[in-house]
Amino acid sequence: MPNIRQAREALGVRLRELRQSSGLNGREFARRAGWLATKVSKIEHGKQTPSEADLRIWAGVCGADDEVVSLCAQLRNLELAYATWRRQLRAGTAARQRRLSEIEAKVGLVRWFEPSTVPGLLQTAQYARAIFAQVIAVHGLPDDLEAGVTARMDRQRVLRQPGQRFHFLVTEAALRNLVCPPEVLKSQVEGLIASAGMPSVALGVIPFGARLAKSPVHGFVIRDEALVSVETFAAELSLTQPEEIRLYGRIFDLMRESAVYGKAARKVLLRVIDDLSALVTGNEEQSP
């Protein structure tokens, strides 16, 4: 995933292309902008982050005032996009869940793709407890495990809020990854069957053996047409550029083409439950 440096370089490339399209070399551009030539070079090579005022001047010198809104949006995306988990979670996992609840209460459509775990809005309390315990341990966070689980369960009330729609896509691998004890995962998959029956929820499952038009590199959440959230091991990326949102929308549609729904999805879930039941029974038999 892109980091701050790469995002700044991408903005610099775009600004350089605007300058070149205007027919100005770096020195003449700097003279018209009233800047040192070194400032122009640093911005174009991603060594310096321009301000919004700089972007307005840049667009004006290039005769591209119609680019100002998009350029400023790209700058804000650069500044806000990369939030490390330690910074996000320093107030605790529960605080983050409450922030997400506030965001989701205002969203009409959520499209959520997960290749490795069950989406948070569909998690059982036991499954969520296992996920939060991992997060707290890996990032060395204050232990607010039970508060975090409670807040996640409260957050799920949005699924019953009138006028909102949720489209979830999960891979079969996400239903089988033992990020928790097998009996907990079995209960979680059983819970998905109930969730799929909710009026606001569409649940698609991409089964093993399905042909994929795009490799499932990572999970993501699209909230309306305004925000894409992408989680990495280190941070959460918030993408707001229209072209980024359209790209993730296309990827979601590609993944959806490989998914099964309704009775076919239930069949996959029941197969997973049977396999997990056998695993639970085998573990019980091996216990002293």
Automatic annotation (TrEMBL):
<dbReference type="Pfam" id="PF19054">
    <property type="entry name" value="DUF5753"/>
</dbReference>
<dbReference type="GO" id="GO:0003677">
    <property type="term" value="F:DNA binding"/>
</dbReference>
<protein>
    <submittedName>
        <fullName>Transcriptional regulator</fullName>
    </submittedName>
</protein>
<dbReference type="InterPro" id="IPR010982">
    <property type="entry name" value="Lambda_DNA-bd_dom_sf"/>
</dbReference>
<dbReference type="Pfam" id="PF13560">
    <property type="entry name" value="HTH_31"/>
</dbReference>
<dbReference type="InterPro" id="IPR043917">
    <property type="entry name" value="DUF5753"/>
</dbReference>
<dbReference type="InterPro" id="IPR001387">
    <property type="entry name" value="Cro/C1-type_HTH"/>
</dbReference>
<feature type="domain" description="HTH cro/C1-type">
    <location>
        <begin position="15"/>
        <end position="69"/>
    </location>
</feature>
